UniProtKB/TrEMBL annotation:
InterPro entries: Sig_transdc_resp-reg_C-effctor (IPR016032), Tscrpt_reg_LuxR_C (IPR000792), WH-like_DNA-bd_sf (IPR036388)
Keyword Ribosomal protein found: no
Any one Gene Ontology BP term: regulation of DNA-templated transcription
Pfam family, one: GerE
Entry keywords, A to Z: DNA-binding, Transcription, Transcription regulation
Protein's recorded name: Regulatory protein, luxR family
Organism domain of life: Bacteria
Amino acid sequence: DVSTASDLTPQERQVVALVRQGLANRDVAAQLFVSPRTVDFHLRNVFPKLGVTSRTELAALPLDL
């Protein structure tokens, strides 16, 4: 069961938007004032929600975030 971007939490949407811009976890963390482990946590939740298994697949999704 694949979710849509609207099913993501606000924090997950922020992380996804920055990752899709090509930022590394540490850079996403710095911009959002959280730890890199928090970014990793959000991505581990986002991947199954959106049916992807990598950052590359995430970036290729036609999402309007």
